[in-house]
Amino acid sequence: MAVFQLVMLSICKMRVKTQALPKLFSFLIWLMPILSILLYALMLVTNLDMNAPIDKIICLILGIMFLIIGNYSTKMSFEDAQKYMHPAPRNEASFRKMSKLLAYGFIGIGIVLLALVFIV
């Protein structure tokens, strides 16, 4: 997890030299420390033979993460997308269509995962 965090930090810092970080990149920087704390706590609970519903907790964590990513994916401007995305979007209309489709997909998957917590 520490190696993955260093890779995420280096990618975000390499992409953003002097500008402020967009909200999505700042979320990605904090994603791994939060996940490592939660997963470490789950490993402790599992190894101490406490009956915790691990599958529901993982679905809850992933559902919230997908909802946050879906929310922030529409916040990126076209100019930021030109700088950070590879290949860069050709025009603003196609970028907006792509980002909305991506956001709907992430939000839909997040809602399905949150519904699985209560169904299963």
UniProtKB/TrEMBL annotation:
<feature type="transmembrane region" description="Helical">
    <location>
        <begin position="101"/>
        <end position="119"/>
    </location>
</feature>
<keyword id="KW-0472">Membrane</keyword>
<keyword id="KW-0812">Transmembrane</keyword>
<feature type="transmembrane region" description="Helical">
    <location>
        <begin position="21"/>
        <end position="42"/>
    </location>
</feature>
<keyword id="KW-1133">Transmembrane helix</keyword>
<protein>
    <submittedName>
        <fullName>Uncharacterized protein</fullName>
    </submittedName>
</protein>
<feature type="transmembrane region" description="Helical">
    <location>
        <begin position="54"/>
        <end position="73"/>
    </location>
</feature>
